[in-house]
Amino acid sequence: xxxxxxxxxxxxxxxxxxxxxxxxxxxxxxxxxxxxxxxxxxxxxxxxxxxxxxxxxxxxxxxxxxxxxxxxxxxxxxxxxxxxxxxxxxxx
Length: 92
Known about the structure:
This protein is mainly α. It is built from three helices and no strands. 75% of the residues lie in helices and 0% in strands.
């Protein structure tokens, strides 16, 4: 999963705008908040992509892997993806 820098900027802008609108944060340095938000968003997307690839590889490495996009594939993918995300949360 890859998002362009423009899309990430747009997402972060919407998040910061929403937080400010709801008076959940004050952003005296909006440029700094945008940079930090983009870094966090980019790291998160990278983690999702890594977990996605590991989950797919675990399925493909089985002796008799199910066909991709079958219900069995989807069940295994969800299970392995969640396991990888838990590992990342524990490590982070």
